[in-house]
Amino acid sequence: MDSYIPKEIVDKLRSISSEEVALMLGLTVRNHKAHCFMHDDKVPSLSFYGPNRKMWKCFSCGKSGNAVSLFMEFNNIGFVEACQQLANQYGYSFDVSSNRPLSARPITPNLINISYPSRFKKSNSSLITPSPFRDDIAKVVLQNSVLTPTAYKFLFDERKLDGNLITAVGIKSVEAKNDLIHTLKSNFSEEELINNNIVSIKNGRSYLKFFTPCLLIPYRDINGSLIGLQTRYLGEKKDVPRFQFLFSSAKHLYNLPILDKMSYGDDLYVSEGITDCLALLSAGQNAIAIPSASNIPESELLMLKKFKLHMFPDNDEAGLNAFYNLRKILIQRGTSIRLEVLPNEFKDYAEYYVSLKANSDGNEQSK
Amino acid sequence: MVTNNQSNKLTRKILCQGLLDAIDKRDESVYRDLEYIRSLISFLFEDDWSDSGYCNTSYDVLANDQFLLGYTFLLKANPQFTYTWRYLRQKKDEYISFLKNVQGYITQICSDISEIAPDLMKIFNLELQEIKLVIDDTIFVVLKSSIPYYEFDLEIKNLDRILSASSDKYVLRVMYGKTTVGVYTRKDPSDIDILVEQVKVAQKLIKSDNGSK
Question: Which chain A residue shows the shortest CA-CA distance from B18?
Fold first, then answer.
């Protein structure tokens, strides 16, 4: 039976930025141009253009197309295979053998070994061959985790977040890593855990591939199905990344289920990062988050078009630039986002919220 | 909120973000086509066209764009449209010239404002009323003594004037409160000095007028 790619998935893939896919494939893109990989290219002839730079064209060899065709040409594979691999990369799940799109069921993609020309290889190979998201493993991780005292201290003492909200969004934490490794090994084979970048083996011992102690932050799609898992390091080490995505580098907006409860024209705050988003939600606002300024799930932004968008950027040049960048992407999609300004003394909304909360708690106590 | 920590030099990016901020303050339900105006401003003002490689590639893409060629054919096929396909293809080429002119226009505006802003602020010593620069009755720039050095507004109904824009053909008015204190039609670089002299004279007149009251 021929494999079938649902039309909505194909449409989504065709709307992905070709320039972004080129970067992912390891091409060096400068000023929206790259050296064409389809012939010996002395000067950059491969141009990315159109809204979101979703189209490409080589002015030397004349070939052109969209993100899917770029992926096909680069890997010398067919349309269906290219769609499957790109869908995995971007976290779009579907059933390859039926006409029914599946958002909740995990897919086991038939990943093809891609051989990349040496000049295109990047040191970060995880961008090229990502492990697909395995919600069955993620569920076991979440089900066997609780909120540890370190997480309590961070979420409620330091950040003053709303306890009901943390329960509702299902945030957990990991401290005793050996217990979690043991549980994972009793549910999945060692090979599965290693292949999915959850566990590594060194000198015969198993280690988690993320730093602990940490929060576990589940990402869900608009229907509430698990689509991603991010950690937030809570320890003292300075040289470890604060945030890590498990399994896959796929991009998603955080807190998508809130969109299902909102109506046309409602105010929606977009934050850069999870902690500001949790603070906005605790303050009673509708909020979602982009994982970071350099990790914007552009295709999912289309879902925000019917809402009135606002953003409190971080109070520095980088924060403002992140806002302008996001606004540019939204403008290309026919919407915009309104700039909200924090008082000067606060570096981000989370800090501002802590101050607001401290003031309101103080006022209640004085009553 | 547009900041520039380094200096009060007006850049293309600051101008673009300021105009988009101004558009975002407008009520979507009152203004038609606001989302398209936003997109147009972002397209014309924001992209860095100063890189000649990028610029030339973009023009090449446009000149050879099959989508656009197909679109001209569709328009020509409309029986209500009485011009030929050739006319539309020529218009497409003129459009490339238009884009080049707009790039020159924006670069020149930013350069001229950056040059005269310190002089104007010195002349008026930032007295109570604001100094406003009005470009082609379309772009409004209010000068500030501290960050953000500029605030912007846009007269949407006059946006068509950008169609005839070029780097050596625009009118800049300097306003002090509600009074126009200098008008400058760009012809050659010496004009900018004449404008500053005009403003100096006007400022003296205003001051003596206020003194006599």
Answer: A324
Tell the residue number behind the tokens 């038609």, with chain if given.
Answer: B32
- Comparing B1 with A145, which gets the higher pLDDT? A145
Task: Give yes or no for a contact between A355 and A315, defined as CB atoms under 8 angstroms apart.
Answer: no
Residue partners of A259: CB distance under 8 A and separation at least 6: A222, A268, A288, A303, A304, A307
Tell me how crowded residue A178 is: count the other CB atoms within 10 A of its CB. 11
Helix axes A177-187, A135-143, angle to 10 degrees: 140
Burial of B55 (0-12, 13-18, 19+ CB in 10 A): middle
For residue A129, pLDDT over 50 is answered with no
Q: How confident is the model at residue A93 (pLDDT cuts 50, 70, 90)?
A: low
Residue B19: what are its φ and ψ, rounded to 5°? -65, -40
pLDDT bucket at B50, cuts 50 / 70 / 90: low
DSSP state of B133: E
**Closest among A363, A285, A290 to A327, alpha carbons compared:** A290
Q: Which of residues 329-348 of A touch B (CB under 8 A)?
A: 331-332, 334-339, 341
Over residues A157-167, the mean pLDDT reads: 93
- Other CB atoms closer than 10 Å to residue A206's CB: what's the count? 18
> Is B39–A331 a contact, with Cβ atoms under 8 angstroms apart?
yes
> Helices B34-41 and B12-24, interaxial angle, to 10°?
170
Q: CB of A129 within 8 Å of any CB in chain B?
A: no
User: How many CA atoms does the CB half-sphere of A138 hold within 13 Å?
Assistant: 24
- A324 interfaces chain B, CB cutoff of 8 Å: yes
Length of chain A: 367
What are the backbone angles phi and psi of residue A247, rounded to the nearest 5°? Answer: 70, -65
